[in-house]
Design brief:
By secondary structure, the protein is an alpha/beta fold. It has helices at 18-28, 45-50, 68-79, 97-105, 125-131, 133-150, 181-190, 216-226; strands spanning 3-11, 33-39, 57-62, 83-88, 114-118, 162-165, 197-200.
Length: 232
């Protein structure tokens, strides 16, 4: 393996943010592998990515939009034998680079195999207002259901910052193509009987107007997945 970490970022129509986000990640992790999977963007996202000059950046372009789950699974296939740990994040500006570094430091403990970045370990009332009360309670409810089903004690099942050792990838049966990849990852990782650690991360929520992709429909899909109504 050539890298300690691979940072895996799915991207779909993020032309306003992707250049700054990926440039900062490459600068902050100069000795690690940064993989961006452009999920069939119809704006200038890929053109923005091509402007980034970094020896540790790998771009994968999907010709058609397949969904976040498909993009992440594509990226996992690429990084599996190239790094020890994979870190998921998004191409928007909701997650701070400092928090990705914070999560990576957890792996100084060789016993740790899975770490999630939780938006809700330290979450103020002001942040709830910014996120929207409906989104806050939807996230908390879905996490509550996931904890019941998978016997976990997570505070943020839907977090974009999920990380784990790549040695676990071979044991994950991932098939989800869209946002249902989030509960599927929790299910598969929980099924390995490994401790899922959480660390607090900051969160800068954005609205649909600002480019937020996940919708109420996706929340319903996640709930149905958790209740095993959607068969995989």
């Amino acid at each position: 393996m050539n890298f300690k970490f691979s940072i895996l970022i799915p991207c779909y129509n993020e032309e306003k943010t992707v250049y700054n986000v990926i440039s900062k990640i490459c600068e902050s992790f100069p000795e690690e592998l940064v993989v961006v999977v452009d999920d069939g963007s119809t704006d200038d996202s890929y053109e923005q990515l091509l402007k980034i000059e970094s020896k540790n950046l790998k771009l994968i372009k999907l010709e058609k939009n397949k969904g976040k789950g498909f993009a992440l699974r594509t990226g996992l296939n690429y990084v599996e034998n190239k790094s020890e740990v994979v870190i998921f994040t998004d191409a928007d500006e909701e997650i701070l680079i400092e928090d990705l570094i914070k999560v990576s430091h957890e792996y100084k403990n060789p016993e740790i195999e899975i770490v999630f970045g939780s938006r809700f370990l330290n979450f103020s009332n002001q942040k709830i207002k910014e996120m929207g009360i409906h989104r806050y309670f939807a996230n908390k409810f879905l996490t509550f259901v996931a904890n019941l089903i998978y016997n976990q004690s997570l505070t943020d099942m839907e977090t974009a910052v999920k990380t784990f050792k790549t040695s676990l990838i071979k044991d994950l049966n991932l098939t989800a193509d869209r946002f249902d990849i989030e509960p599927e990852l929790v299910r598969e990782l929980a099924g390995l009987n490994k401790k899922i650690h959480e660390v607090s991360i900051n969160y800068n929520p954005r609205s649909r107007k600002d480019g937020k992709k996940i919708s109420f429909k996706d929340g319903v899909t996640t709930l149905l997945y958790l209740l095993n109504i959607i068969k995989k």
